[in-house]
Amino acid sequence: MNKNTSCPICKKNTRLDHSNLYRPFCSDRCRLIDLGKWVDEKYGIADTSVVDDEQIYPEIH
What we know:
It is a single chain. The protein has one domain (1-61): Erythroid Transcription Factor GATA-1, subunit A (Erythroid Transcription Factor GATA-1, Chain A), CATH 3.30.50.10. The chain is elongated and about 55 Å long. It starts with a strand and ends in a 5-residue tail after the last helix. Helices cover 26% and strands 10% of the residues. A hairpin with a 6-residue loop joins β1 and β2. It has 61 residues and is an alpha+beta fold. Strands 1-2 form a two-stranded antiparallel sheet.
């Protein structure tokens, strides 16, 4: 696979094949910047599930 893409952090052109150890990032620096954003909670995954507390904790209700 010789596909190119833009680095999600710096937008530099980068390769997605096995020669790029940091894919989809262009470098270790961009990989660490992305990790830092997850740690700082600048990224998140929305939870749209509905939870029924009575089914999970019946002894409380």
